[in-house]
Design brief:
Elements: E1 3-16, E2 20-27, E3 31-37, E4 56-64, E5 67-79, H1 88-104, H2 112-125, H3 132-146, E6 169-171, E7 176-178, E8 189-190, H4 195-203, H5 232-249, H6 254-263
Parallel strand pairs: 3-5
Antiparallel strand pairs: 1-2, 1-4, 2-3, 4-5, 6-7, 6-8
Length: 265
């Protein structure tokens, strides 16, 4: 059995027997793998605090014929998850993104862009309390990395490029927006002006920082999109994304239900 060395982000772990652990890891060069850590609950030298969810680790593992579960030989922490445990919101947000990657990727499919994006998310969560706009922005980025991005730029039926003011109709079944003409005969839902345009803007870049007020340091606090003050954007964006994910990906994220209750969105 060949020995492999790789970087990985721990997605989840669970007990197996009295002393072993089953770990799911998203690696840089091999994609998602399932691994067993023999004696992980007893070994203070090899695995102490290493195989915790959200950790970025360097691992050495054996695999047999390139299939099935691998066996971890050694692992050490590259970047720990310290800071994520500070609040329940941080833990639940990190859990949502690791579950997102776990549920929407296949075993042994390399995705370098997604690896670094997940690492960026987990690193930022340690220092920033995410709001719904941060979560949505990174969710869209991950969908794009995975090839599942909704079409917010052109009519999904006729292909006509849409101006912001015309982006009013979204078809969950078709996976994107419709022009006024095509919306006459294709099932869809109409949304208030700028909701879909704002979603497209989030896709093209994370919200920019809010200017400081009275010398306040704002860091990465994002500008609220149009209508955010009364919840119009959040409500409609949530409906669009939930409908799209449900119809096209057929996945329900357990951690998302907890997020909804915490953020009240």
């Amino acid at each position: 059995m060949p020995l492999h060395k790789d970087d990985g982000i721990v997605l989840s772990k669970r007990a197996y027997g009295e002393s072993d652990r089953i770990v799911r890891i998203f690696t840089l060069t091999s994609g998602k793998i399932g691994a067993i850590a023999k004696g992980a609950s007893k070994s203070q030298k090899r695995f102490m605090n290493t195989l915790e969810p959200f950790n970025h680790i360097a691992i050495e593992y054996f695999e047999k014929y390139g299939k099935g579960m691998v066996r971890i030989e050694n692992a050490h922490v590259v970047e720990a998850n310290a800071g994520i445990e500070k609040t329940l919101k941080k833990v639940c947000t990190a859990s949502f993104f690791t579950e997102f990657v776990d549920r929407l990727t296949k075993e042994r499919e390399k995705n370098t862009s997604l690896f670094y994006l997940l690492k960026e998310v987990l690193t930022r969560i340690k220092d920033v309390e995410f709001d719904y706009h941060n979560i949505l922005s990174y969710e869209l980025d991950m969908l794009e990395c995975l090839g599942y991005m909704p079409n917010f730029s052109a009519c999904v039926y006729c292909g006509k490029t849409m101006m912001n003011e015309d982006r009013l109709y979204f078809s969950s079944e078709r996976g994107g927006i419709l022009c006024p003409r095509c919306s006459r005969f294709i099932p869809h839902k109409a949304y208030p002006g700028e909701v879909i345009a704002t979603l497209a803007g989030l896709k093209n870049g994370h919200p920019r920082p809010v200017p400081a007020i009275d010398g306040e340091e704002t860091g990465d606090r994002p500008i609220a999109p149009h209508g955010a003050g009364n919840g119009v954007f959040e409500k409609n964006a949530r409906e669009i994304m939930e409908g799209f994910v449900s119809f096209h990906l057929d996945v329900e994220f357990k951690s998302y239900r907890v997020l909804k209750s915490l953020f009240q969105f």
